[in-house]
From TrEMBL, chains A, B:
GO biological process: methylation
This protein's record includes keyword Metal-binding: yes
Keywords: Magnesium, Metal-binding, Methyltransferase, Transferase
Provenance organism: Mesorhizobium montanum
Molecular functions (GO terms): methyltransferase activity
Protein name stated in the entry: SAM-dependent methyltransferase
């Protein structure tokens, strides 16, 4: 993964990400049942080895904190005195300070005991990309990742007249698919080296499901089409240049369940040869919590003001980085603000049309 | 260690610390010989265990990077394929992103291969204070710490008419000493749990040496007296209040070699009972690189402009946090700027009087 590409996937800091990604937490809470069940069936470790957990692409760790409590509880139920480590991984520029503060109970009010106060639990951060090996060979008992591996390691091309592969031309989309399938193999082979025999992965990744649904595309309106349309409006209004228009390209690809499963279905694949087996796979749609809340409160303004910042939390850097770096910073901020304000006005005008349902493919993988 | 106390020991970010602490690197380079020698004599690990290294209170990791290269080289000389982990620890608010970027070669030009590109080397951060156990029991092969453990876990009192324990009243100083000795035991017992049998610590800590020398006090002029005098000038000029004057109290204590050695000299102490033994101890004075450079270039302005920012890098938060939080931010900045500007003018006027020689006590400790 190139450093410069990596830099562009920055998130906004200090808990902003977690607070605005309520939906992400819903997904993780659902996956937690699977995780706890898997842990209960795992082989007992030899003495002197910690039960090593990793969260790949953890951001500030906020959305997975409750799951980690349950996971730690499940390990301790079988082995009360087993040392446990949790390694939170993300790109180097991630806000690890917020992650450590959250785990130590130093941010915001909480009635729960801080995760970091659990006896014999050791928490680490790693700034190593999940496209590389993050942990030593045969050391990982349980790897987890949620809503992270749709970020591919590099953009094979810019998407000329859209912002995401879902709206790209066929030729563009095939380049993204090729990159994404290569990346998936790279990710799995790195995890295969890290996992102990009997160790498991539980991954909840964005996908295109069996019905063709994907993030923000479960009804007639498509969220990425909205992004593209508002970005195109800025081009037409002369606010941004043609180059800036084209450069807004999400470094993402949503695989289908078939694509997730492919390396496992071929016994001769490098992934199968490395000992990885697909134990479970299913897709799930998590209803957009903001749209659901709107069905009750029916206040279009409130909905728009809650909904668009969520989109902004993970999309802003893509648009901000598309702008010419020679523009003064305040000019860039103004363009980006106008972009999201226009989107927000759109949502306020037709609130029933907008929703960002999450569409995930959950895979549970074991290393033989 | 209380969170709020911890917050006050913040450093300025993005490589500022390393770039301005040339002296710290000199110390570590000298200690590296000791470290490499110790590693060569360490017992071979069982298969499947990484050689685990930790840097306690690592800041951005910049000053110890070359030593880490040598240490990794020394391990690989004996065991070419041994997996190695390095855990960089500091308080949660530490700039771990800069640390990861530095190790991955993403900051500044360097002709060296990035440390993180070493095969089978795994780099982690930990936001757990070194007053707690950071790593699992019996997992640590080599622990290192430089110029970090003079920060005590809490301030037992404010120092009424000075800024550091070296200039405190006897009664105040005894309170600081009691806290520091208790902290030293806490640190050692936590490390005793983490270390493998045969594992070692190499610690370079600020001290008061056999001649009564300490940081910034190796000639007639005392650096902490200078801080205190300039702070008192602000009180006399009515710029700061009496409370603000008193609140500027470094949460630090410099122990003597005897105090460092005491827990090891008593076979009944909890530290001795935990299996720790003091193998080596010596003090060393590292000449202030800025003062040494001045002896050649003789440009007083240049010296003052290089020297005072170094002091500022580790002292600023103490003075900034002493100011009443109800003051507007720009007013606080102006006071702090004036404070260091006055110090700088002082240095420029009498450059031969100022130098911040480092005075360290180096200890090498083994766990039986």
């Amino acid at each position: 993964m190139s450093a410069t590409d990596g830099q562009k996937i920055a998130m906004r800091g200090a808990g902003y990400y977690s607070a605005n990604t309520v939906g992400a937490k819903y997904v993780i809470d659902k996956v937690a049942d699977l995780v706890v069940d898997a842990v209960a069936r795992m082989p007992r470790l030899a003495n002197g080895h910690p039960f090593a957990i990793a969260d790949f692409g953890a951001a500030d760790g906020g959305t997975s904190m409750d799951m980690m409590r349950r996971l730690v509880g499940a390990v301790r139920e079988t082995e009360p005195h087993r040392a446990i480590s949790i390694t939170y991984t993300d790109l180097p520029h991630n806000d690890f300070s917020t992650l450590f503060r959250l785990s130590q109970g130093l941010l915001g009010p909480s009635t729960d005991m801080p995760l970091a106060d659990t006896p014999a639990l050791y928490i680490f951060g790693s700034g190593t990309s999940f496209y590389r090996q993050v942990l030593p060979d045969n050391s990982l008992s349980f790897g987890f990742s949620a809503t992270a591996m749709h970020w591919i390691s590099k953009r094979p091309c810019m998407i000329a007249d859209h912002v995401q592969a879902v709206g790209a031309s066929n030729a563009e989309r095939e380049q993204f698919r090729t990159q994404a399938l290569r990346d998936w193999e790279t990710i799995l082979l790195a995890r295969a080296r890290e996992l102990r025999s009997g160790g498991r992965l539980a991954l909840a990744n964005f996908c295109i499901d069996e019905e063709g649904h994907y993030l923000g595309h479960t009804t007639a309106v498509d969220m990425f089409d909205c992004f593209a349309r508002h970005w195109r409006d800025l081009l037409r209004a002369g606010r941004i240049s043609e180059t800036e228009y084209v450069n807004a390209t999400f470094q993402q690809f949503y695989k289908t369940p078939q694509e997730f499963a492919a390396p496992f279905r071929d016994p001769a694949s490098s992934v199968s040869q490395a000992g990885l087996r697909l134990e479970k796979m299913f897709t799930m749609v998590t209803p957009c919590p903001y749209a659901e809340a709107f069905r009750t409160h029916r206040n279009a303004q409130d909905f728009a003001r809650a909904y668009v910042p969520t989109l902004r939390s993970w999309s802003e850097t893509v648009f901000a980085n598309a702008l010419d770096s020679s523009r003064p910073a305040n000019e860039r901020s103004a363009i980006i603000d106008d972009f999201y304000n226009a989107y927000e006005a759109d949502v306020a005008r037709a609130p029933d049309e907008h929703r960002m349902d999450y569409v995930h493919c959950v895979t549970q993988i074991v290393k033989l």
